Automatic annotation (TrEMBL):
Superkingdom of origin organism: Eukaryota
A Pfam family that the UniProt record links to this protein: CAP
Keywords of the record: Signal
Protein name: SCP domain-containing protein
GO cellular component: extracellular space
UniProt xrefs under InterPro entries: Allrgn_V5/Tpx1_CS, CAP_dom, CAP_sf, CRISP-related, V5_allergen-like
Keyword Cytoplasm: no
Annotated signal peptide: 1-18
Organism encoding this protein: Strongylocentrotus purpuratus (Purple sea urchin)
The keyword Membrane is annotated on this UniProt entry: no
SCP domain ranges (all copies): 50-193
Amino acid sequence: MIRASCLLLLVLVSLGLADEPEGMLDGMPSGAPDRGRPKLDIFAQGLTEDEKAAILALHNKDRGEVSPSASNMGELQWNDELAKDAQDWADQCIYKHNGYRDRRTSQWRWVGQNIAEGTIGFFSVLTFVDWWNSEKDLYNYADRTCEPGKECGHYTQIVWAHTRYVGCALKRCDWQRFDYFVCNYGPTGNYPKMWPYKKGTPCSRCPSGFHGGCSENLCKRG
């Protein structure tokens, strides 16, 4: 069993940013196989350096493979402060989003979040990211919507072009018998009625600070 939830940032016309709206999704979406990746160590706690690197690489792979292609998609970098905050929340073993105010960092007032849980010891951390990205098939870029009754905010957060950093955490929740995976994103994405990125020729409109050329359809930092 596996499930996930993404945090959706809502803009209220008269009040500005909402404090803590969120979207929930139960059940395993189609198109998210484990691909034969190694399972988590039965005694795993937290993330290894290799897992952190693999999670970051998979996020960037997903960002480089968006359809339609993105003209302004930059590579993500790992951020230890985001990862620490994600770990602090995962350690609570409470399957819901913590509040926006609790996720504020020294750099960002608004931090996005994807969460997932799976049967203890059964899924690799990359399976959770694969699952979020599988929502790509549910997202209609042209009208910026998901299929009716479906959730695709995990995917749009991963590929939100203005998000620059990610930090993730894993907690083995023994009493509840699930592995809890949390990723925080700075700055947040998922603003309503906005496209996650600008379509066009890859790297043709790289954002400020990304002057390192183009690799795998991503603007590189200079």
